[in-house]
Amino acid sequence: MDRIDVNRADAAELAGIPGITEALADAIVAARAAAPLTGVRDLAALPGITVDQLVTLAEHVHFADPRAATTALPPGRSLVQGRVVDLTNGRAVEGATVVVYVATTPSPTSGDFTPLVGVTTERAGYFQFLRPTTGFTAANAAVTVNGVHRVPIRLADPDPATGTGLLPERLVLVVEPAKDPLYSSGCGCEDLTFSARGEVLEEFSYFTVVRTTDPEITPLVLAESPSVTLDEVAGLSPILEHELLKGVKGIGQLWSAGRPPGADAGAGDAAVLKKMSVSRSALEHVLTTRGRIDGESVEPILHVDAAQKIKGLLKPTKKPAPGRVDLTADTAIDWDASPTLYQATTLAFGHVLHLSHEWSSDGYSLGDLLYSLPLAPGQKKQVVMVDWERRESAANVQSQDYQESLDNALSRDRDVNEIAKGSVSERSRGGSESNVWG
What we know:
Number of helices: 11
Low-confidence stretches: 257-267
Order of helices and strands: EHHHHEEEEEEEEEEEHEEEHHHHEHHEE
CATH topology of the domain at 79-180: Immunoglobulin-like
CATH architecture of the domain at 79-180: Sandwich
Mean pLDDT: 76
Helix content: 10-25%
CATH class of the domain at 79-180: Mainly Beta
Radius of gyration: 58 Å
CATH superfamily of the domain at 79-180: Carboxypeptidase-like, regulatory domain
Shape: flat
Largest sheet: 4 strands, mixed
């Protein structure tokens, strides 16, 4: 039994194997297009293949590289193995006709070329033919892909003495797309260099600052607002003066006995008002709490002011850092009511960098590019894309209901009453009488 080459047989040949479906044959052809199948393991990876089909294929096919020779070659001969690639769509071409032309005259013209061999490309664009042993001065190939394309062939092993060379054993024929006459002549665009590289399209320029040194800094503590004397409050209104003078009576004696710095022991109530200094926050607290300042407010003001001073004594004092230091538990950021601000005392040095980006052409092509947006580093641009879509739908619903019902009821009642009565009477009478006379 002759085995079928799984890398060369078409789908019809594969489907002719018993148990092999057309879908599996198409899957084998599609799989070997990506890479030649090398063994049963590659067949087992095909989707949907069963164990029976795998066993059948192993009995009826063999594996050979389509790019390798499948027949015995004469001694000293080799094959020209080639492939056709179409740049129009970037893929290999199957079923294309390749005719190789050769010339044997020096500096040949178009009339000096004669056809040597003609082949048809197989799947993935591969072809092969027996390599001639004679040398040629020039060679080219005519490939039929959307027309006839002439592709030059570079000869191998050139002989300087005779100026001839052999056809290469590996040959790749690249078919380039034909130029549209609309863009090649008669349009006034002959001077446009669509394939030129290095042309600057756009240029983006911007500046940035890089600091190389840090300035020296000095801490600045925002102190609490200064205190105010009760005399300043009394001077705002005669009523406040009268009430505050009334409120300091008796407190003035304690104030004089304590003799704070600058206070006279026999100072009067007016002198006590001038010497009695309280914090603005204490005055604001009492005003907010009581809603007014009168003679009875003096003592609460003094109590609040004293409490604030005691809290200040009990609060741990932290000296601000004299300059730049690392953040630690001892040098934390000051978030309290009196934050520490730092101001620069020296100049910082750095560089102003001028960055320039040039976008140059890397070649043009008439393809399907819809929009190109070059962006420089750090640049941001909003792009709006409008897409239009139209959908139509139709629906036809038909419904038919049929219902049939049959009810039958049969009822029969029968009552049988039988009354049997029997009466039996029996009477028996007997007697004996004897008369004897003598």
